[in-house]
Every structure is written in C-alpha cells, then in structure tokens.
User: Fold this.
Amino acid sequence: MSTDGVNAGRRRLLIGATAAVGAVGVGYVAVPFVKSWNPSARAKAAGAPVTADISQLEPGQKMTVEWRGKPVWVVRRTPEMLAGLKRIEPSLLDPASENEAQQPAYARNEFRSIKAEYLVLTGICTHLGCSPMFEPEKAKIESTWEGGFFCPCHGSKFDLAGRVYKGVPAPKNLEVPFHSYTSDKVLVIGVDKEHA
Assistant:
C-alpha cells in the first residue's frame, strides 16, 4: 500500500491552511497600517478642512460649523443686508478691512467674502474671546443698527460683514477664515483657494 497519495493530499491541505492563516494575519496587520494614513480626530481638529452643505441655508439665516475647535459662522445675506453695509461705514473702525491678518486677500473687499451673498466668519470676539450673538434685525441694538453681531460680554458690535464699530472694546474686525466653494451648495472651510 502506497502512502505517497495520502501524504501529498495532507501536504496540500496543510499548505492551503497555512496560506489562508497567513493571509488573514497579513490583513490584520495591513488594515490598521492603512487606516493610520487617514488623519486622526485630533489632526482634523488641528486644522483639517471641513465641508459644509449650505444648500438649505435660507436668506437671512446663520449656520455654525466647527473648525479647529472654533465656531465658524456662515450667514446668507439678503440684498437688504448687503445694502446696509455701505450706510454704516462711517461708524466702523476699519471699514476697508485694512488689517490684512483678519481675512485672506480674496475676502478683502466691501463684503469680506468670496461671494457677496455668503459671509464666513470665525465666531469669536476679538476683544476677549466671547461668542457674539447674531442680531440681524434692524434697530434691535440701537436706532442706527443695520444688523450684525453683538457681544454680550462687553458690548462690542460688528456689522454683517464682521467689521467692528468704533468706540467698543473689540480692537479689530472678526476673522474671516480661509475658505472656498466646491459647488454652489458646498463650502470648504480651511482651504485657501488661492494656494490650494
């Protein structure tokens, strides 16, 4: 009786089983390795870009998106809101946004935005870091109020372009973060469109 056939079959079975176990082992090693290439939650919080769907944002409304652990406001301004920006310029400390550190070059315009309709601001007061309230209604804060942001901590006021009023504690305009649009409905915060 020959044992060659039995040994050959057993050998093939052992080789196949060893290969299968080895493949599973490689998979267990490879998956965490490949996952490590993706940015961690900590890395994302440190500055990875964030996308926001702005398709449901109605005129006159504000939404908040978190980027780098800070609130970023997106306001869809109405034509009336945009018209009010020019009227209040004499009341503003830096109406021309001359402090270049407060916004990217592409947002250094009368609307402080890429698209006039959409305002993108870091929602932190430039005085002591409180979060101002969105007050879009005219005359809500004072008779000449055209709408904007009011900081309840110390009374700083900002217009609907994030520009600071004269005579308030905040020394400069609200910051405009780097941002761009991938479509009419998707905003990307944290990407400099000029240097992307």
Observations:
- The helical segments are 4-35, 41-45, 79-87.
